[in-house]
Design a protein that fits this description.
With about 240 residues, the protein is an all-alpha fold. The chain has two domains: about 160 residues, no CATH class; about 60 residues. It is about 75% helix and about 0% strand. The protein has a two-stranded antiparallel sheet.
Length: about 240
């Protein structure tokens, strides 16, 4: 049973890994174009393993924001993994160290794929979905750094839209499996509006941070819906 759930996660993760691989090529090429060394770009993908945080880091550094604000932007964006990890925590097994180790498998696509509703997560599906994504992300980065396709080629191939398209697919999959879509839809609308408005005045990295406000509003909007659902179940 656990093996079947793990393999099911790998099947889901294969599609996410393919998108992540292409996205990672873009990251590696952009990082190299901005003067990053191969070791720095690949090391970032090995250690951070977060497209949103790594692209925010690139954008902040490219905008001459300095190393401190760039790292701060990446940390703030990756801060979303804290509530995600807390949510998945009860579905993990073992002591604190073992749970913390298992929690490293929490990434956006895997977290959504493993979500069963009602605050429950399939940890084996989570592990399977992540285990194929990490090597694809690192390999894509290495290919982007070594091959270093030009920004013109990246745009012609449409690689520059993979990043937003990836998260759009994650959002659509989450909406498809939810009974209540009010929270996610509101979060997406507010996030998109905030990012579009901020891009007129601030660099892309800061606009991306502003877009996270949508997640907070969406979370507040979803709490009443989840409470209503849980009350209905109890009745």
């Amino acid at each position: 049973m656990e093996r079947q759930r793990f393999l099911a996660g790998m099947r889901v993760g294969a599609g996410l890994a393919a998108a992540g691989f292409v996205l990672a090529i873009t990251f590696g090429a952009t990082a190299r174009e901005q003067g990053w060394s191969a070791l720095a770009a690949i090391g970032a993908s090995v250690l951070i393993f977060s497209g949103s945080a790594q692209f925010a880091l690139l954008a902040a550094l490219a905008g001459s924001g300095g190393v401190g604000p760039a790292i701060g932007a990446a940390l703030l964006i990756n801060g979303r993994f804290l509530p995600m990890g807390l949510a998945v925590g009860p579905s993990l097994s073992g002591g604190r160290f073992r749970r913390a180790l298992q929690g490293q498998a929490v990434v956006d696509g895997s977290w959504v794929a493993a979500h069963q509703g009602g605050g429950r997560f399939d940890r084996w599906k989570l592990f399977g979905a992540t285990i194929v994504q990490w090597p694809a992300w690192v390999a894509g980065t290495a290919l982007g750094v070594i091959g270093a396709p030009s920004s013109d080629l990246v745009e012609r191939l449409g690689l520059d839209v993979v990043f937003p398209a990836f998260f759009l697919l994650v959002l659509l999959d989450e909406l498809r499996t939810r009974r209540s879509v009010r929270g996610p839809l509101l979060a997406a609308a507010i996030g998109a509006g905030m990012a579009a408005a901020l891009l007129w005045w601030v660099p892309a990295g800061i606009a991306l941070l502003g877009a996270t406000v949508g997640a907070l509003v969406g979370l507040r909007a979803q709490e009443p819906a989840e409470q209503a659902t849980s009350e209905g179940v109890r009745r």
